[in-house]
Amino acid sequence: MVAQTSSQKYAGTAPVPDRLAAYTPSLAIKLAVLYQGQGDSLPFQQLAERLGVPLYLSPNNDSPEDYFLSWRDGCLKLLDCRACSRQAGGIHTIHGDKELLKKGGLAVDIEPRNGEQRSWPAPKDGALAQALGRKTRTVVDATTGWGQDSLHIFRMGYELLCIERSPVMAELLTDGFARLAQQDWMRRLNLQPPRLLQGNAIDLLADLESQPDCIYLDPMFPPKRKKSALAKKSMMVLRDLLGDDQDKEQLFEAALKTAGKRVVVKSPDYAEPLGGKPSQSFQGKLLRYDVYLKG
Ligand SMILES: C[S@@+](CC[C@H](N)C(=O)[O-])C[C@H]1O[C@@H](n2cnc3c(N)ncnc32)[C@H](O)[C@@H]1O
């Protein structure tokens, strides 16, 4: 595919590729890859081809996209263009959202979170580690999203497999895990980043090579209020891009069938437990980890 400007490419709304439409049937996702002369254009072309979305040299007034994917500062980033201002002359400048301009978009953050130890393995403490259980060694994160829980689990030294069904999020994760592999401490300790499978975990869990001790689920629950001031930007974008996970009950059933010892479900504190009364619950900040032990 040759890089094309939007005026060459479109008159009207971008088609939603089947792969994207399949799991977000009610959403008209408009996404493109943006190449603005950042070196070799081939990775941008290949990314656009893999996702079945257009490639722009520069977006203009006609471009119907809400989001762009682009490499900036060595990271693959998701730019939220709903916040872009459309200027005279047709050129979008991605500056409407001051927060995003400062950060230059959203990427998978591979840095430890505040209060999380940098060394590996970090101590297995806190509500998440309690929920995963002292005897757990192998974990499947079946709802990887931005990978923040996965990376926390990985840094605590669990053997981890990640699953994510959104091809867009899988691309962002692949980029984040590749950056993780290049970190000094990962190389020094000869560690490999977690393996990532792209697809629906409801299907993939049935075909795992070996049974994990624990399956971790953090599906998207409907928000309590329409707009929560507490919701993080990254999660708001994820909700906008993917919608609520309507099939979380089926995912829970698949996880319970597959897990060797337990299923852990992260829920907002206002939500009903996904699988009925849990065996144990651990309280985090505004959230709960519900644990379902296998008999
Ligand atoms: C709330 S986010 C998870 C956030 C994640 N725990 C983090 O720390 O960034 C839910 C994610 O799970 C994914 N997901 C939901 N159901 C899934 C399924 N059945 N198979 C694979 N991925 C799924 C969604 O695409 C979305 O990216």
Written description of the protein model:
- By secondary structure, the protein is of the alpha/beta class.
- The protein has two domains: about 100 residues, no CATH class; about 170 residues, Vaccinia Virus protein VP39 (Rossmann fold), CATH 3.40.50.
- Helices cover about 30% and strands about 20% of the residues.
- The chain is globular.
- S-adenosylmethionine binds next to helix 6, strand 8, helix 9 and helix 10.
Query: Would you identify the regions where 5 or more consecutive residues have pLDDT less than 50?
Result: 1-27, 85-102
The kinds of small molecule bound in this structure are: S-adenosylmethionine
**H and E order:** HHEHEEEEEHHEHEHHEHEHHEEE
What number is the mean pLDDT?
A: 83
**What's the domain count?**
2
What is the CA-CA span between the terminal residues? 53 Å
- Proportion of helical residues: 25-40%
Radius of gyration: 20 Å
Q: Care to count the β-strands?
A: 13
